[in-house]
């Protein structure tokens, strides 16, 4: 059994879907049930549009089916109600593979979706789990009065209980250490863009060159440049457009990078590339973004750095600074819109971060970010 990803030649109703996950049997034949599920979940339903999410779905389902195959288990057989196939797979993932609880639960949720789909299609007669009621924390946000759950939630009994992980945020000193440790121009600019805008990993790696303009020809704010992100230009979660504010100082450096350095790298592939940042071969970065994680790991820093930590850092420090200034708008709403959050409750999590961090940690960030916030507040 193998997991492969399609090329441009793979088409659904005449439309190509490159990088689509395909699970093959030992005879290199596409397994029909997983294929139909992935097409339905990732293409037909239209809620899983990111190629990175396609890989997550394909990898999770492949991991489960490969486990069944290696242990000569039939995923359709749910006759043992006391020791279901999902509970066996869950325990193997935790005890033998040493996976984190969150990782196991994430995979289980995808496999559970597969079983629900299989039940509707008639491939299985029952589901390999039971539904139970679990106690959940009640909302404390401004919409708490609309919560009718009573603090209870129905959930599959195979899922593991988890504790909320604290949002990781870099301190001012860590930001300075990180930036000073990066010697490669492209890597440093990617990092600065993440810290100054809160872009997601996929958004950083597909950020188009066309959004970079000559600051000398700009009018308006002397602190930042508003860029309207569009799904036809780059990968955006949910394909929802939004605006970000890029500090003028960073825009100047990005413009200088395009004029002086990017051309040499782009010429290596011999092809036109619309994205701003290219790898050492002059090609766009891999959609899974693991190369970026490796770059940060290789720095040998005493603290963890991931693109999502940079995103959290931007949101937390920006919210802190905007709340200190005399803004004519709600800082929380501003951060929500810049981050592209679907719900304000997601952004409210950063208020809790501000409550638990020491004030001296929050007192300063990057000078350009401080200036940007002042410009926004005016």
Topology, element by element:
Elements lengths: L1 E4 L5 E2 L2 E2 L4 E4 L7 H13 L6 H20 L14 H11 L5 H21 L9 E5 L16 E5 L15 H10 L3 H13 L3 H5 L18 E6 L12 E6 H19 L23 H8 L9 H18 L6 H9 L4 H13 L2 H4 L4 H11 L1
Antiparallel strand pairs: 1-4, 2-3, 5-6, 7-8
Summary keywords:
378 residues; mainly alpha; two-stranded antiparallel ribbon; 14 helices; 8 strands; 9% strand
Describe the structure.
This protein has about 375 residues and is mostly helical. The protein is built from 14 helices and 8 strands. The chain has helices at about 30-45, 50-70, 85-95, 100-120, 170-180, 185-195, 200-205, 250-265, 290-295, 305-325, 330-340, 345-355, 360, 365-375; strands at about 1-5, 10, 15, 20-25, 130-135, 150-155, 225-230, 240-245. The protein has a two-stranded antiparallel sheet with strand order 1-4.
């Amino acid at each position: 059994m193998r997991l492969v990803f399609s090329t441009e030649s793979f088409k659904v109703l005449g439309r190509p879907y490159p990088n689509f996950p395909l699970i093959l049997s030992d005879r290199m034949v596409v397994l029909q049930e997983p294929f139909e599920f992935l097409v339905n979940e990732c293409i037909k339903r239209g809620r899983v549009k990111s190629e990175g999410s396609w890989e997550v779905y394909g990898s999770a389902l492949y991991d489960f089916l490969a486990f069944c195959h290696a242990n000569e288990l039939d995923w359709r057989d749910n006759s043992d109600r006391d020791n279901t196939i999902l509970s066996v797979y869950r325990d193997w993932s935790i005890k033998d593979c040493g996976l984190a609880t969150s990782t196991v639960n994430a995979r289980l949720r995808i496999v559970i979706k597969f079983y629900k789909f299989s039940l509707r299609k008639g491939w299985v007669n029952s589901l390999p789990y039971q539904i139970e009621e679990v106690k959940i924390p009640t909302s404390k946000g401004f919409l708490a009065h609309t919560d009718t759950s009573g603090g209870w939630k129905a959930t599959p009994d195979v899922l593991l209980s988890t504790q909320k992980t604290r949002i990781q945020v870099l301190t001012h000193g860590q930001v300075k250490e990180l930036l000073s440790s990066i010697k490669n121009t492209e890597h440093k600019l990617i990092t600065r863009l993440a810290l100054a805008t809160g872009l997601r990993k996929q958004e950083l790696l597909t950020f188009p060159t066309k959004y970079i303009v000559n600051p000398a020809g700009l009018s308006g704010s002397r602190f930042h440049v508003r860029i309207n992100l569009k799904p036809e230009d780059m990968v955006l979660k949910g394909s929802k457009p939004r605006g970000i504010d890029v500090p003028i100082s960073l825009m100047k450096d990005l413009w200088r990078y395009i004029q002086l350095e990017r051309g040499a790298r782009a010429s290596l592939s011999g092809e036109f590339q619309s994205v701003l940042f290219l790898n050492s071969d002059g090609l766009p970065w891999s959609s899974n973004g693991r190369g970026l994680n490796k770059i940060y790991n290789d720095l040998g820093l005493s603290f963890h750095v991931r693109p999502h930590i940079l995103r959290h850092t931007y949101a937390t420090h920006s919210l802190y600074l905007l709340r200190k200034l005399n803004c004519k708008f709600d800082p929380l709403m501003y951060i929500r819109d810049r981050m592209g959050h679907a719900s304000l409750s997601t952004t409210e999590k950063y208020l809790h971060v501000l409550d638990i961090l020491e004030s001296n940690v929050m007192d300063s960030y990057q000078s350009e970010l401080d200036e940007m916030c002042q410009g926004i507040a005016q």
